[in-house]
Each structure stands twice: as C-alpha cells, then as structure tokens.
Design brief:
The structure holds two protein chains of two kinds. Chain A is of the alpha+beta class. Chain A has helices at residues 2-13, 34-40, 44-47, 52-55, 58-74, 120-184, 194-220, 232-242, 244-249, 269-286, 304-311, 362-372, and strands at 17-22, 28-32, 78-86, 92-104, 109-118, 228-230, 252-258, 265-267, 293-303, 324-332, 376-381, 388-395, 402-404, 410-412. The chains are: A alpha+beta, B alpha/beta. The structure holds adenosine-5'-diphosphate (ADP) and magnesium ion (MG).
Amino acid sequence: MEEHSIVESVLDNLPVALFAKDATDDFRFILWNKKQEEVTTIRAEKALGKNDYHLFSQESADYFRSVDKAVIKRGSLMKVPEEIIETKNGREVHLRTVKIPVHDKESGRLLVVGISEDITEQVKSREQLERLNRHLVQANQELQQTQMQLIQAEKLESIGRLAAGVAHEVKNPLALLLLGVDYLSQGIEPDDPNVEKILQQMRDAVERADRIVRGLVDFSSQRSLSREPTQLSRVIDEVLLLVKHELTRSNTKVNVRIEKDLPLVFLDMSKFEQVLINLIINAVHAMAGVESKLIKIRARSESLEEVVKNQGARKREVFRSGDRVVILEIIDNGHGIAPSDANRLFDPFFTTKATGVGTGLGLSVARRIVELHGGELTLENREKDPGAVARLILPTKLETAKVRTVTGRVKTEETPKEIDTGPSDLTS
Amino acid sequence: MPRKILLVDDEAGFTELLKMNLERSGAFEVRIENDSTKAVAAAREFSPDAILLDVVMPEMDGGDVQAQLQANPLLARIPVVMLTALVDSTELSEGAVAQAGTQMVLPKPVNLPLLLRVLDEIAPAA
Ligand SMILES: Nc1ncnc2c1ncn2[C@@H]1O[C@H](COP(=O)(O)OP(=O)(O)O)[C@@H](O)[C@H]1O
Ligand SMILES: [Mg+2]
C-alpha cells in the first residue's frame, strides 16, 4: 500500500532510532526502523517478533523490561537520559531514550514506543572534557602545593638566618636568671630589699625568653593558610621581636606609626610574619653603609577611591570600589632600587646580594603570600628621599579578598571559622 | 676601699642584677651605663678599676667603645672585660672584639665565680 510505504520511508529516514514493543504480547518488537538497526547492529528481520531477552544479554533485557513496565504502569512518557547497550561486536552505545505508552484502540494492544538518540559521541567528548578538567584541577592543586612548599622552604631559610639572633635574644634573659640564682643562692638576709626586685626581674626574664621562643616556634609552624581577624600591630610586635638582634647589630632604628582604630585584617600570622621579616631584612641590607639607618613602618586605612587615585587603576582588578583597605608601608633610607632592576625585583632568584646573603626568593614569596591574602605588594623608590618603600594593600573584609587562581577565574578566599558571612569557597 | 667597676650594657635588668651581685660582698662599687654612647664619658668621670663591656649594643657597639677608650691615653690602661651573648664563637674572631684587642672575653650568661676570679686578676684589691 502506498500510504504504508510513505510511513515506512519516513520512519526509516528519521535521524533517531525508533522501536515499538507489544506489551500485551510478551513485549515483542513490532517496529524497528533503520536507525535502530544501525544503533543496535541488529537487522529488522531478526528483531521483529522477538523480545529483549532474545536479542540482548539477560542483564540488559532485565533493565529494559523494568523500564517498560514502569512506563506502562505510569501511563505516561518516561525519559531515560542515558542508557548503554552493548552491541554484538562489543561496542558500547550510549542512548538518550524516551519511552511512550500507546494504547492502540483498534487492536486493543498496549504498546511501548521508544525513541532513542545515539549520544555516544557527546558522552565521549563530555568524558574527555571531564578528564581534562580533572587534570587541570590536579595541576592547579599541585601548583598551589608547590607554591606552599616554596613558601615553607623560604621560611626555613629565614629561620636559619634569624636563629643566631633569636638565640642571642634568649641568652640575655638567661644571663639575668643566672645572676638572680647566684644572688639568691648565697643566702639572703630577711630584710634584703634586693630580693623582691630580683624575683621580679627573674619572672620578667622567664616571660621574655618564653615569648621569644614561642614566637619562633609559631613562626616555624607549617600549617596551611588559615586567616583570622588580626591586629596589625600585634604582627608587627612579634616580627620586631624576631628581628631585634638584626636591628641592634646593624644599628637600625625602627619607628612604627599605626593609625588609631585601624580595622582588623584577615591574616595568617605565621605567613604574614614571613612577609614582614623579608621586607625588614631587605631594608636592613639596603641600608648597609648608610649613616643613620631608619626603618619607618606606617599603617593606615583608606577607601578604594583614594587607592585608585594614589596607586594607579590596576588595583581595580583586585579590590572593589568603596572597599576599605589597610595600607602598610615599610620605608627605608637605603640605597634604593637601580632602574635596571626595578622590573626584576619580584622574579624568583633575582638577587643583587652575595651568595649566602641573598637567595632572591624573599620578594617573590612575599608577594605570593600577600596575594593569598587578597592583597598587593609593591616595592618602589621613595618619591623625594633616598631609599625604598615596600607597600602592602590589604583587604579588611573577607568578601573582597579576591584571588586570581591559576585558571584565571576569580575566586573568593575561604571563610575563617569565626566569621559566618560570605561564601565558603576553599581555594587550596 | 671597694674596687670601682664600670658596667656598660644596654640591658637594664642584667646590669641591675650584676651590680647587686658584685656589690653584695662590699668588694666592688659598680656604676651602670646603659647607653653605650655615654660609656667613655662615664669612664672619664668615674675612673674605674675595670670596665665590663657588652658587645652587641645599639648606636655604638662594644668594639667602638673599646676603640675610643684605647684612643684616650688616660683610659687606655683600664682593663676591659667584654661580655657577650654571641652564640657563634666565630663572630668573636671576626667582629669588633678581635680588632679592639681586648684582654678578656666572657660569655653570657655570666659565670659569676669566673668573673670574680678574672676581676681579682686584672684589678687586684689594693
Ligand atoms: N628595600 C630595598 N631597597 C633596595 N633594594 C631592595 C630592597 N628590597 C629588595 N631589594 C632588591 O631586590 C632584590 C631581591 O630581593 P629578595 O627577593 O628579597 O631577595 P634577596 O633579599 O635574597 O636578594 C634584592 O637583592 C635587592 O636588590
Ligand atoms: Mg630578601
């Protein structure tokens, strides 16, 4: 019949696989178009009149049958977003299938009509994409891990350099303690007015030694980045304790001025100490041979508009307009930066110092740490006076702590435990 | 008469306790100078029998003070004992101490009996 052949040729030329099963006759196939032949590699002559159990594995057939029964039971269309059939030659074909229950009033038969789209290629490219993405994520993680290791290695380097000075600072209270013990062990008169003073001195000495040692231990700790709302003055105090000997020895004066009511900044104490120690030791080195060595440490807060005006528009990438930021400056009166070096200061291993004095890692690591804090670090010559200024711009809110990740996406740093605002998206 | 000792060290607590220890027996009279830039003036004024001098001090370190004492004929003869908390003994040979030609270097923490022996030797009681 002509009408019949039109329907047939339409069915056979459909770009989707089409089949129908008779639920009232053991789910035998009554329709099997060309595309269905291609997808299953089973010819229509073989398939028609058979059911899934004749054509596919027990496992697959069980699965198809359970879906068919569900379709009949529900009495409405069902979508199977992805199913896999294994062809006779062992190839896996991924299908997106829609199954529709059809009640044929004329014959009284109950049919399950299936329309399947071969999505094997799509799935493959999706899987490939996922694999690539996993690689990328892993590479990113490895990179971040390596960076943390580099930061830690640089820290060990600084500890090595600081250790002698710190030991010196501990020996002073020890010397005091020993003198106290010497005095007290020689027997004391009940009315000796010195005893009270000596005991107080000894108590102070123990506390001082304890503070220095604890400071070094805290600084050495190898934890992953954990930021807490911190008073900048506290970090500066700790750092000055660790570098005290270096400053005394080089006869460097330090002048600290911190704006009143400076907002808290979200800092990892130990990592941030590393930054400041690097900058201060750099300043000390830069002032070799200078008559009166002076390091000025200044901290103030500004709103972003001022920052943009003062420091150039590129800050816009990192901070949002209207953000309150803290600006910390370490200013020295040393020999400053040679124009030819200016672009290379932050390159890893760039150093103008003798081997053993400089590794060239200090600034690159310091910048990385500051970036992990969502901030910026620059080093420039001072405008009028001789010397250089290292300038840190730090966010005061966690939400604005934007970090450019390796993939180029802008992510928000993790939220510390104490604070429950903002997204908690971990970047490590 | 007690022997006069000038004690130059920027650590106020340390100098106070050392002074108490030395003066206790009545054998010594100790003058403290915590500011090393005033050490030479103090020596001139006090004319001590011996000077105890810290090495690492701000402004002027022990080596500088020693050099200025040496340059002054009136003060050059006063025996000097360097006290130092330097940890690494190589720092001593490289640093100011060696240059200044100090007679005696004692490590900090100070061993008091040893210091007393040294003082008896370089500044014996009359
Ligand atoms: N405050 C400063 N003044 C002048 N030059 C500086 C200052 N800080 C750093 N530099 C220059 O930057 C270089 C790189 O510094 P850094 O990365 O800390 O490595 P290192 O201190 O080991 O040389 C230094 O060798 C020095 O030339
Ligand atoms: Mg450095």
